[in-house]
Each structure stands twice: as structure tokens, then as C-alpha cells.
Design goal:
About 25% of the residues lie in helices and about 25% in strands. By secondary structure, it is of the alpha+beta class. The protein has two domains: about 130 residues, MutM-like, N-terminal (N-terminal domain of MutM-like DNA repair proteins, Alpha-Beta Barrel), CATH 3.20.190; about 130 residues, Helicase, Ruva Protein, domain 3, CATH 1.10.8.50.
């Protein structure tokens, strides 16, 4: 599933390409993609001008004139790509957006069909149910606020980092990389952290996410940005997907353990479990 760095990269590539363009048409090929309405509601976006593209958590918000918004969640395999107008489409392409005076159109493709689109007609899109439920953005939270948030939470660190109501946008890849960078075991109880460990975790969150964004995200399977460019941060992974390989810090073999139904990769020596 595309996580914060990947969706941020997609948002940046779309922002460069479509802000200021006027939508000519939107065509839906998979009705269930549209979460809260039917395809006829897309007509109101015709002749609307794209005013902004931004990420919130793992979701992508395309804002248009008239307080209209397209809210996408890519889930596991959602992708945007450009195609020539009139070009054939495969069975996994579920939406197309064409623009005035442009010979290319933007398409949304999703092999697993778990992604969704919600139409918002409001000047306050962040008050929608999907966005309102999200926690703060990790890169916008200072260490004091992070300390206060984590002090109120129970549970284990890996599960907490994946909880979108705690922090928005972190997924399995970056949770593992963050915990390795902060030398914390994924099963460490959040309530057991000392002040120095909280600060180290906050620093690791900021460092790992910033570096991943700068690298264009991680292309593990089929992720590409809207321009078809692969991310490069997978080359910097220290533990994720590296079971049996030597820890880059101490040489101990990286292990994999299922935690909360998700694969977790960590170094059993550098990330010792608390008794």
C-alpha cells in the first residue's frame, strides 16, 4: 500500500501537472470505486478548474473551483497514470479525467479494487468523515506534542505507528524502518518509553519520512508516481523485507515476525525487547 512518502510524491507530480487546468470530463468505469454517490454526480466537475492537490495521511485530495473535491484512497494497488486521449484501457483502469486543451488524460488504475473515491462538495473537506478521523501529520508535530500524544496511548509501538488516528500516513514499511532507526523493538509498550526514547522515536519518524519523500518513496512491487517514475528509497531500507540478511548496524540476522497480522522486520540485537 502506498504510504505517506509515496502519496506525497504522487501529489507533487500531479500538482505540477494539473493545477490550473479545467476538467473537460470524468468517466467512471467501476461504479463501486465511487463511495458516496453515483456516476451522475461527476458531472458537476465538468468545467471546474483544479485549484490544488495535496496529501492527507495516505489519501489524496484534488480540489477544484466551486468547493468541489475528489478524495482518493489508493489502498493497496491504486495508481495514477497519463494516457493519450482515446487510447485503449485495460480492465484495471476504473476512472479517467480529461482536461481542456490537453491531449493526455489522467487515469486511475487499481488491480485489487480496494481503492475508493469520494466526492466532496464543501468548503471544508477536512471535516469529511475520512479525513476527520485521522491523527496529525507526523512531519507537522513537534516533539512536545508527540510526547503528549504517546503518553495517552497504550499498546505496542508497531501497532501504534500503524494506527491512523494516532499519526496519519505511516504504514508497514516506514514503521519498521522508524523503529530500527530508533533502536526500539516493535512490541515495546508505548507507556514504557522514557523521555530520551520518545525523543529518539520522534527524530526517527521525521528523518525516515523526509528522506523517503526526497527519494520519491519506495518501489517495492508496482509503485510509480503519476509520471511513471519509480521511487528509490527501497535501496535505503535497513530492515524491511530483509529477513535473514545481516543487520547493517551489528551484523545479526534480521528476523520477521507477524505482529497484529502484519509482517514486521527488525534486528533482535539492536532492537531488544523490554522484559
Amino acid at each position: 500500500m502506498p504510504e505517506l512518502p509515496e502519496v506525497e510524491t504522487i501529489a507533487a507530480s500531479l500538482r505540477r501537472a494539473i493545477v490550473g487546468l479545467t476538467i473537460a470530463d470524468i468517466e467512471l468505469f467501476l461504479p463501486k470505486l465511487l463511495k458516496n454517490d453515483d456516476a451522475t454526480a461527476l458531472r458537476k466537475f465538468r468545467r471546474a478548474t483544479v485549484s490544488g492537490v495535496r496529501r492527507r495521511g495516505k489519501m489524496l485530495l484534488l480540489s477544484c473551483s466551486g468547493d468541489l473535491h475528489l478524495l482518493f484512497h489508493l489502498k493497496m494497488t491504486g495508481q495514477f497514470y497519463w494516457a493519450r486521449k482515446g487510447a485503449g484501457r485495460d480492465a484495471h483502469t476504473h476512472l479517467r479525467i480529461s482536461f481542456r486543451n490537453r491531449d493526455r488524460e489522467l487515469r486511475f488504475r487499481d488491480v485489487r479494487k480496494f481503492g475508493f473515491l469520494r466526492l466532496l462538495d464543501t468548503p471544508f473537506p477536512d471535516e469529511s468523515a475520512e479525513l476527520r478521523a485521522l491523527g496529525p501529520e507526523p512531519l507537522e508535530l513537534d516533539v512536545r506534542d508527540f510526547d503528549q500524544r504517546i503518553a495517552r496511548r497504550k499498546g505496542r509501538l508497531k501497532s501504534l505507528l500503524l494506527d491512523q488516528s494516532f499519526l496519519a500516513g505511516i504504514g508497514n514499511i516506514y514503521a519498521d524502518e522508524i523503529l530500527f532507526a530508533s533502536r526500539l523493538h516493535p512490541l515495546t509498550p508505548a507507556a514504557s518509553l522514557k523521555a530520551v526514547e520518545i525523543a529518539r522515536l520522534w527524530t526517527a519518524i521525521r528523518d525516515i519520512l523526509a528522506k523517503a519523500i526526497a527519494a520519491g518513496g519506495s518501489s517495492i512491487r508496482d509503485y510509480k508516481d503519476a509520471d511513471g517514475v519509480d521511487g528509490l528509497f527501497q535501496e535505503e531500507h535497513r530492515v524491511y523485507g530483509r529477513r535473514g540478511r545481516p543487520c547493517p548496524r551489528c551484523g545479526t540476522k534480521i528476523v520477521r515476525r507477524v505482529i497484529g497480522g502484519r509482517s514486521s522486520f527488525f534486528c533482535p540485537r539492536c532492537q531488544r525487547k523490554k522484559a
